[in-house]
Amino acid sequence: MDKSKGTAVHDKKYEKFMTWLHENNFPESKLALANFTNTGRGMMATSDIEAGEVIVSVPRKFLITNDSLTKIYGSKHALGPHQLLALHLVLVSRDKQSWWKPYMDLLPIHFNTMPVKYAKVLVGHLPTALKEQVLQQKENIEQDYLNCIKYLNTRNETMTREEYEWAWLCVNTRCIHMTIMDGTAKGGSIALAPMLDFLNHTSEAKIESGFNVRNQCFEIKTLTPYNKGEQVYINYGPHDNLAILKEYGFVLSQNSYNFVLLDKEVWDLYSEVESKRGYEIKKQILEGAGYAGDYSIKADEISFRLMAALRLLALPGTTEPGFDRRVMDWHDVVMGQTDLISTDNERKALIMLQDICKKVSAQAKNEIEILSRITETHPEAEFHPFALYFLRQIWNESNDIIEQTLVYLSDKLSRL
Predict the structure, then answer these.
(1) What is the pLDDT of residue 38?
(2) Torsion of the alpha carbons at 104, 110, 113 and 115, rounded to the nearest 10
(3) Residues in contact with 135: Cβ distance below 8 Å, sequence separation at least 6, in sequence order
(4) What is the CATH number of domain 260-414?
(5) Which of 4, 51, 52, 6 is nearest to 33 (CA)?
(6) pLDDT attached to residue 255
(7) How far apart are CA 59 and CA 68, in angstroms?
(8) Where is each SET domain found (predicted)?
(9) Rounded to the nearest 5°, which phi and psi values hold at 207?
(10) Nearest residue to 3 via CA among 232, 222, 253
């Protein structure tokens, strides 16, 4: 966790925001908005904070929830919580006299470090799995926009795609997930919470959070102590950098949850090695055992699922005598009744993984090389410099994991 000291933010918008909180009896905290060298804006401890202290407490009237918006828009609509919160942000952002204006003025102006906003030249260099997820996210935004337009038509109002995309991403990057506040609350459990949403993420932070029914506030308690001047963090959950980049538009410099997904490579190898019939039979075996897909490697771990798929692939063809017996041996390994099918099978499976890793490593190195020259090869392309920096980091991290796995595989094969 970065322990560097921050520099307090002093600007009119932030001062108006703090005045707004104070005038509306927002509980005092030991936090102040500050700039930090490595993470940009975040919350700084204005005095020492002990483990077990509540670092921020957001009263119910400051929480923008599906329940609170139902009182404004009614319940006779087909909008989900995310759609409704985003629509509300668009409409409130237009109202210069809104009670929420001090909060609205501190929301991000753009989300250009998020892959969903990348220029085409960068989208083309996203890892395959991330690219598919980003395209799905783009479709989700479009569908939510169209649903909101249908609702606005009933009110003779409209909005642009750009307005809604900005609001949708505000909700996506800043919302909290909370337990239902009371028995009468309806709808989803996401909410926007001023002040709390300025806290940055690290996987090292330990917190407890929830709605305190006694004081009607959503509270976050830190289990990690902080010294005056240090950045105070929360923990969004056990996410790898690909997930963090897609959902929040940044990456962590050190992330123990990082992994490389090899689903495409494994299924491609199945197609190369097996006949069409053999492919279908072995895929059905994997599906039946619950081992189809989610094949990953980490810096210090090869997933059991991945090895299960490769051990099955390493079994002799489905038409050869004794295949059913060998599948039973495979099931014994999957069920943990034995460690290996055979030394020969294990060697073949490890060699297959070694070949996959070599191909993926070559791809990663190629992507790193292309991205290092992309401003020269595409001088006309416009993208945020951090977008390129984060994307290069993603590929470097993937290659590091693959290289460590190759060292492990080489050592393991030499001992078989």
Answers:
(1) 80
(2) 100
(3) none
(4) 3.90.1420
(5) 6
(6) 93
(7) 13
(8) 29-237
(9) -140, 165
(10) 232
* Short-list 102, 4, 12, 17, CA closest to 44: 4
Contacts of 366 (CB under 8 A, 6+ apart): none
pLDDT at 189: 82
Q: Which CATH superfamily is domain 60-248 in?
A: set domain protein methyltransferase, domain 1 (3.90.1410.10)
Q: Return the domain boundaries, the chain.
A: 60-248, 260-414
Question: Could you give the strand order of the β-sheet that contains 54-59, starting from the edge strand earlier in sequence?
Answer: 54-59, 217-222, 207-212
Q: Low-confidence residues of the chain, pLDDT below 70?
A: 1-2, 179-188
In whole angstroms, give the CA distance from residue 284 to residue 293.
12
Q: In what order do the strands lie in the sheet with 296-298?
A: 260-261, 296-298, 301-302
Which residues does 347 contact at the CB level (< 8 Å), separation at least 6?
413, 416
Q: 4: burial class by Cβ within 10 Å (0-12, 13-18, 19+)?
A: exposed
Question: What pLDDT, in 10s, does the model give residues 84-131?
Answer: 999 999 999 999 999 999 999 999 999 999 999 999 999 999 999 999
At 331, list the tokens: 């099931």
Predicted confidence at residue 178, as pLDDT, reads: 74
Contact indicator for 350, 316 with CB cutoff of 8 Å: no
- At 147-174, the pLDDT tens digits run 999 999 999 999 999 999 999 999 999 9
User: For the whole model, what pTM was predicted?
Assistant: 0.90
The strand pairing partners of 186, in sequence order, are none
